[in-house]
């Protein structure tokens, strides 16, 4: 599938474009700003874009009001179609956020329930108790997502809401030509709905990609042949920054061996979970790491490990943001893309990934593993790429059976002779192709 060979880039449109947090109802054509990023995306090596929520919502996008209308704060459906057409013309695929577990209090169907109560034709779209009350004093109780009552839980066992949501996906395909979906809190979404979504999307568009959000547990509960093609690899997200901060690379490499090693019991061999170092819900990598010099190492692991790499907007040049300061600090306005030495390194890794089948499809083998140094190998049909990490603050020489005396560093284009051992500078990463 095309997604297995892609480098994704995540936009959080409401934040990136500087839209007001509360939906003020004022039409602004902010989504068109994405057009100004296309050259940056291409230079970076991005081949697919993931848009966090951009349909009409109460505030942050995940409390949807209307699944078939671009948020007024971002523009119009026509504006977004222009953006999609421009991305596609530049060879960049598009996936949207599918928020199907819950909607906002401003969702037209829920507003009808509050107004007409038992007489509303939408009452069975939700989990309602008309004998109770809510924290908003609605005179009725409803289930909210994990106790958040601005997010009204949808009753996905109801055929009418399923029909509305599936019809919305078909509308997005027909109207905007999207290539896939990232399914918000997919671990909570009704499994039968996921199967129905997968079946229908397979009919509507070839190679339509479904990525499911899952935080922990067995990713195959949603990543399988009947539901999602991929899942968010939160285990390795945590493993990357934690291993670097503790100078214990065993943590991340053991996770990778557990997930992708050669043993029959390894969990996800042959699958392509999405790899990331940060996103709109977690602390930015530049804040999460103890050493700024380790940011390229974190990206090196992300791009070299099995899976589909995804970059969060702005982190490629080192934007900071701490989740403890609230979501909006992670979803900041960026007036224009920037480029620096870190971006150069991330771009080199992205281009290496899209050009090397071994990085896209290769198996995983740990060659050298020490607290502050590691080398792991990706092998595919006779092609090999070695990822070498030196997380120490001193020069280090690796001595191992490299099966070759020299290689090309895919990140610099330089020839590397390691017949007498591979010597690496402090805080460095190499992608070596013998």
Mean pLDDT: 96
Spans of at least 5 consecutive residues whose pLDDT stays below 50 are none
| Secondary structure: number of strands | 23
Count of helical stretches: 12
Largest beta-sheet characterization = 8 strands, parallel
Describe this structure in words.
With 434 residues, the protein is of the alpha/beta class. 28% of the residues lie in helices and 23% in strands. The protein contains 12 helices and 23 strands. It has helices at 13-16, 38-44, 77-89, 108-116, 159-176, 191-204, 234-245, 250-260, 285-288, 295-304, 341-355, 357-361; strands at residues 8-11, 48-51, 55-57, 64-70, 93-98, 102-104, 128-129, 141-142, 144-145, 148-153, 180-183, 209-212, 230-231, 274-276, 308-312, 363-369, 373-380, 383-390, 396-398, 406-409, 415-417, 422-424, 428-433. Strands 13-12-11-5-2-1-15-14 form an 8-stranded parallel beta sheet. Helix 5 packs parallel to helix 6 (191-204) and helix 7 packs antiparallel against helix 10. The longest helix has 18 residues, at 159-176. The radius of gyration is 23 Å and the shape is elongated. The model has no long low-confidence stretch (mean pLDDT 96).
Task: Reconstruct the topology from this structure.
Layout: E1 8-11, H1 13-16, H2 38-44, E2 48-51, E3 55-57, E4 64-70, H3 77-89, E5 93-98, E6 102-104, H4 108-116, E7 128-129, E8 141-142, E9 144-145, E10 148-153, H5 159-176, E11 180-183, H6 191-204, E12 209-212, E13 230-231, H7 234-245, H8 250-260, E14 274-276, H9 285-288, H10 295-304, E15 308-312, H11 341-355, H12 357-361, E16 363-369, E17 373-380, E18 383-390, E19 396-398, E20 406-409, E21 415-417, E22 422-424, E23 428-433
Parallel strand pairs: 1-2, 1-15, 2-5, 5-11, 11-12, 12-13, 14-15
Antiparallel strand pairs: 3-4, 6-10, 7-8, 9-10, 16-17, 17-18, 18-23, 19-22, 20-21, 20-23
Helix pairs in contact: 5-6, 7-8, 7-10, 10-11
